[in-house]
Amino acid sequence: MFTHQKVYYPYVSPFDPCKPIKVKTYSTPPHLYIGFQPPNLPQFPPNLALFKGTLWKAFYDPYFSPYEIQREEDLS
User: What single Pfam family name could you report for this chain, choosing any that match (predicted)?
Assistant: First the structure.
């Protein structure tokens, strides 16, 4: 299944003095998965584009921390 949130499992040393983080996640932006910019992409209005950081809706990626998403799920 396709997702912008990726997961990896770093090496955990038996000699590490701290509690290990066994699973780490990172976010990949949408522009990595679009080989070229197709014509006539939907656009944000100019004032909203400045706030979002991109003019095209297809390239917008609202970043959420894994902890932030988990917190939202806990509230429901």
Answer: CotJA
Domain count, the chain: 1
- CA-based end-to-end distance of the chain: 25
Answer whether 31's CB lies under 8 Å from 54's CB. no
Asked whether the beta carbons of 30 and 2 are under 8 A apart, the reply is no
Question: 17-76, pLDDT tens digit by residue?
Answer: 999 989 998 888 888 888 888 889 999 999 999 988 889 988 888 777 767 765 544 444
Structural domain range at position 12:
5-75
Question: Which amino acid does the sequence have at 22?
Answer: K
Amino acid at 64: F
H or E stretch covering 70 = helix 66-75
Name 8's bridge partners.
24
